[in-house]
Design a protein that fits this description.
The complex is a heterodimer. By secondary structure, chain A is α/β, with parallel strands linked by helices. Chain A has helices spanning about 10-25, 40-50, 65-85, 100-115, 135-145, 145-150, 195-200, 215-225, 235-245, 280-315, and strands at about 55-60, 90, 125-130, 155, 165, 185-190, 205-210, 230-235. In chain A, about 50% of the residues are buried. Chain B contains 8 helices and 2 strands. The model of chain B has no long low-confidence stretch (mean pLDDT about 90). Classes of the chains: A alpha/beta, B mainly alpha. Chains A and B meet through helix 1, helix 3, strand 5, helix 7 and helix 8 of A and helix 2, helix 5 and helix 8 of B.
């Protein structure tokens, strides 16, 4: 075999192999045993222990270009909040399309819950969509200074009512006087808007993040320093969340059975009480392993080819 | 007509058109790229007016009539001043009048500069404080920190006595101290790599500097790995969109 040819495989062949392998992987059942990251455990425990009478602020800064990761994050977050009947307010700062993309996810989860006979979330009653804000810096600074002024011009539809209502007249935000009145702020992002949010708001409200794999490494210093109380990064983070939504933390479904997820610093955190747990991330996670295996194989083959070619050039035996 | 299916079909067609660039640069790819750019620009224009300018500027300037539970609001003409200030930004395209564009830019820079002390401290303050970690163990009772819980018969966690838990948590055990030492060493070594103001002389300082560079490279490697994983996730999602969302709906129609 001419090993040196391995260095010159046409990239288009590699693309075809990748597309075929990832397509086939989607149809294989995958429930990969998992030990979630400590940061993801913190995030899940935080979400499952939130008080039910305070709203959560969601800053959704992603669009369809990062759907593979961040859509799974928002879906998991919505499923947890809806199963616990926690009200939330959602807005976008990074991209004009981000707001509509987030609304599509909420609509999809509502349809899923309706089919399962569960309570659905109503606009203006259980959640509010504030729209898009011009830039993350200005939006964050205004929220820090006076949230009533920052959001005061926004109105919302209220399910079952005609016309629009100022957002602070709704059940979601009626008691909110400052950003600190929210129980948690979660930034779902595919860019550096989390840095801006941390700079402006991390000392005012408990903050967490769900981000793409590209952004995730930059969150570690924030997490270690306590600026973020938890985070889920990339597809792995989305799978971590779904895994804990199904299995809880330190939770034994039947007496004597070992919990699937353990963590020393928490008590018993149950799984999500209703609705779906394993979904998008579970579908993609097994396929990700196939793709990464292909990548490792390609790197090994290329290196073997290079090694053999070098040896040949020096006059060694093949 | 099933509009959702039509929407999904268009999504599949444009996904394939965009992926055609993997074979080679072609007109179909360019067409899809321009359609996306045009759609994004048009969509952004609408959102900027609807979500930002209309509610935050136009309505404040013109006032509003009562609508449902929203009361009538008087208009304030003073908001009109923002329009010429904003438009001055566009004079940057004029050679004769581009000095005017510095006025809005100056206002924005001034506001931005005023926030920087708070921004800097909120970013780095907690991280600097967190870097000051103890590296000397406070107890040799055990090498690692004892587990602070046990499991009962039902598999449910049972805590130790609160006094014992508090004692364990207040101590620094050897493995924790070692972990802190590695952290502090990495921080200092990585910083030392950026000391360009003077020559690093001596074997120790040079080795320490090299160690810092290695630590940085390991960090960059981890970031690159995470980025590759993220890109794969995007491909997987596109394949899922085609096979599971589009064909799934087509076949179950």
């Amino acid at each position: 075999m001419n090993w040196s040819k391995l260095q010159n495989v046409d990239r288009r062949v590699l693309y075809v192999i990748l597309l075929v392998a990832t397509s086939l992987g989607l149809f294989l059942p995958s429930r990969i045993p998992n030990d979630p990251e400590p940061a993801a455990k913190d995030l899940y425990a935080l979400l499952m222990q939130l008080p039910e009478d305070k709203p959560v602020i969601i800053q959704s800064d992603w669009t369809n270009s990062t759907r593979g990761e961040t859509m799974g994050h928002l879906e998991a977050l919505c499923r947890i909040l809806m199963s616990r009947r926690i009200k939330f307010v959602i807005y976008a700062t990074a991209d004009a399309q981000a707001g509509q993309v987030a609304l599509n996810v909420i609509r999809q989860i509502n349809e899923e819950r309706k089919k399962a006979g569960l309570v659905t979330y109503r606009e203006g009653v259980d959640y509010i969509y504030l729209g898009v804000f011009p830039n993350a810096e200005g939006a964050g600074q205004n929220m820090r200074n006076d949230i009533r002024k920052a959001w005061g011009t926004r109105q919302t539809k209220v399910d079952g009512q005609a016309g629009r209502v100022p957002v602070f007249d709704t059940a979601v935000l009626r008691n909110m006087r400052s950003v600190s009145d929210a129980s948690l702020m979660v930034v779902i992002t595919a860019s550096a808007t989390i840095d801006v949010a941390v700079q402006r708001l991390s000392d005012k409200v408990t903050m967490a993040c769900m981000s793409t794999g590209v952004v995730a490494p930059s969150l570690l210093p924030f997490y270690q320093a306590g600026q973020l109380k938890g985070f889920a990064g990339g597809l792995r983070g989305a799978y971590d969340m779904e895994y804990m939504m199904a299995h809880g933390i330190n939770y034994s479904p039947t007496p004597g059975q070992e919990p699937k997820v353990t963590a020393e610093k928490f008590g018993e955190i149950p799984p999500v009480p209703e609705g779906k747990s394993f979904e998008r991330a579970a579908r993609y996670f097994g396929t990700l392993h196939i793709a990464l295996t292909l990548l490792i194989l390609a790197v090994v083959m290329g290196n073997v080819g290079m090694f053999v070619a070098k040896k040949k050039a020096k006059g060694g035996n093949n | 007509m099933d509009y959702t299916l039509l929407k999904l079909f268009l999504g599949v067609v444009f996904t394939l058109l965009l992926y055609s660039v993997l074979y080679r640069e072609n007109k179909a790819y360019r067409f899809a790229e321009h359609v996306f750019l045009g759609l994004a620009a048009g969509y952004t224009l609408v959102v900027v007016w609807r979500d930002i300018l209309y509610v935050q500027w136009w309505q404040k300037m013109m006032g509003t009539v009562a609508d449902g539970a929203a009361p009538a609001m008087p208009g304030y003409w003073v908001y009109a001043i923002l329009l010429p200030i904003g438009l001055m930004g566009y004079t940057i395209f004029s050679k004769k009048n581009n000095w005017m564009s510095r006025i809005p830019i100056g206002i924005i820079l001034g506001l931005w500069s005023g926030q920087q002390i708070q921004v800097w401290w909120n970013t780095y303050g907690p991280q600097i404080l967190n870097s000051m970690r103890p590296v000397i163990p406070t107890t040799w009772e055990s090498i690692t920190r004892p587990i602070t819980y046990t499991r009962g018969e039902g598999g449910i966690k049972v805590n130790l006595a609160p006094e014992r838990v508090a004692e364990i948590q207040s101590n620094l055990y050897f493995t924790q101290a070692l972990s802190n030492f590695i952290f502090v060493l990495t921080v200092v070594a990585a910083f030392s790599y950026f000391l360009f103001s003077f020559d690093l002389r001596g074997k120790f300082l040079n080795k320490f500097n090299t160690f810092g560079r290695w630590m940085l490279m390991i960090g960059f490697g981890a970031i690159f790995g995470s980025t590759v994983m993220a890109r794969f996730a995007l491909v997987i999602d596109r394949m899922s969109f085609i096979w599971q969302e589009f064909f799934g709906r087509l076949l179950t129609r």
